[in-house]
Amino acid sequence: MTALAEVVRQHGPHYIERHQGRLLPSHARALRAIATCRTGALGGHLAHCSRCGDAHLLYHSCRHRACPQCGHDATERWLARQRELMLPVPYFHVVFTLPAELRRVVRAHQRALLPVLFRAAFESLAALCSDSKHVGGRIGALAVLHTWTRTLEWHPHLHVLVPGGALSADGRTWLPIKTRKRRFLVPVKALAKHFRGRFLSLARQRIPSGQLPHVPWDKPWVVFAKPAVQGADNVLAYLGRYVHRTAITDKAIIANHDAGVSFTYRDSREQTRKRMTLPAHEFLRRFLQHVPPQGMHRVRAYGLLHPAHRATLRRLQLLMAANVTPSAEPKPPRVRPRRCPRCHEQALVLLRRLAPDECVAWQADARLAASPLARAPPRVFSQGAPA
Questions:
Q1: What per-residue confidence (pLDDT) applies to 377?
Q2: What is the chain's alpha carbon radius of gyration, rounded to the nearest angstrom?
Q3: Most buried pick, 62, 107, 210, 278, via CB within 10 A?
């Protein structure tokens, strides 16, 4: 297995030099973070194993959202918070996809058009759900942006998790999905048409006239919607992969050589795993296009799930709890313990924090095992707090 950090350290400097002056600040920041993650450049912690007695140097993690070595703990905390906000009702999983003609312009204007994608998706969904023929009230939605395919191509689309019901106009009555409509939330074809019109209208307001490509009106916009039959918690866990994770994992990268970077991916059409080799420059280009601009959020909550309506959501949870048969308790956040890299026991004790120059001095000690692959605490770690 070849880590993404190795690819970045070997080919990143040449990539930066080649695109000097044109490289986005967010891309340069991502390359620097990945290259230094769990190295002495970020400092570390001195640790002692109470079982075997060995001392270890645990390098700090960068905590950048594009780094495949980071994000596990942040994802678990995010999932725990979202589970606390779930309603005891069926949930629906809705996916909004843009046609191929618009993907390039969205990539070139991410700050302007990615918020439009979020807004158009929710407003289209909310407009149809407010109709008494479908739901007849105010809904909530949790939207997560996903921009990559399995081969790292740019393919922006939204995954939206929607509670199966709505709050009536009086603000006190919950309107469940009608029994005959349990298999769908709203008509998909109507939703796709509404989404197309809303996105194009908002996009024309955000970017200069003439830059929006023409999309044939007879070309359907793909919108996918179905009940979360596996359970809303499983769909939430699926969405969690995109919140604090990046476009590719270290496990997928199998080689880094002169011919380029090789990685494996799953072909959904043939249901098989395949191997792809890209020149290092092309691999980094594909990877970096999925690093969002600074300050851009991949997750947004709308309607009843927006933080501004948290009191209403809590009231609904209390009102519905009396009418729901208790189910199995939700799983607690899965926290991976720190194991000793030598004896593999869960017996590592953090002694003190080390600055980068101190890491160099400790590395010179032959008795100390430098463990860049061990579970390292983030730079802001404090004794007794989760890393």
A1: 57
A2: 24
A3: 62
**Burial group, residue 372, by CB count within 10 angstroms (0-12, 13-18, 19+):** middle
CB-CB contact of 72 with 336 (8 Å): yes
CA 3 and chain centroid, separation:
20
Six token digits for residue 366: 């032959």
CA distances from 291 to 27, 100, 126, 246 (A): 7, 20, 29, 8
Mean pLDDT score across all residues of the chain = 85
- Write b or e for each residue in 88-127: b if 16 or more Cβ atoms lie within 10 A of its Cβ, otherwise e: ebbbbbbebbbeeebbebbbebbebbbebbbbbbbbbbbb
Over residues 115-154, the pLDDT tens digits come to: 999 999 999 999 999 998 888 899 999 999 999 999 999 9
Burial of 65 (0-12, 13-18, 19+ CB in 10 A): middle
| Contact partners, residue 134, CB within 8 Å, separation at least 6 | 128, 181, 185, 186, 187
29 token code pair: 């920041």
pLDDT tens per residue across span 233-288: 778 887 887 787 789 999 999 999 888 999 999 988 888 999 999 999 999 999 99
Rounded Cα–Cα distance for residues 374 and 380 (Å) = 17
pLDDT of residue 138: 95
Rounded distance between C-alpha atoms, residue 226 and residue 303, angstroms: 20
pLDDT at 384: 39
Could you give the CA distance from residue 168 to residue 174 in angstroms, rounded to a whole number? 6
Question: Position 313: which residue type?
Answer: L
- Beta-carbon contacts of residue 231 (< 8 Å; ≥ 6 apart): none
Report DSSP letters for 189-202, one per residue: HHHHHHHHHHHHHH
Name, in order, each residue with C-beta under 8 angstroms of 72's C-beta and a sequence gap of 6 or more.
Answer: 244, 336
pLDDT digits (tens, 9 = 90+) for 206-217: 998 778 898 888
pLDDT of 325 > 50? The answer is no
What whole-number distance in Å separates Cα of residue 135 and Cα of residue 223? Answer: 19
CA-to-CA distance for 143 and 156, rounded, in angstroms? Answer: 13
User: Tokens for 225?
Assistant: 């919607």
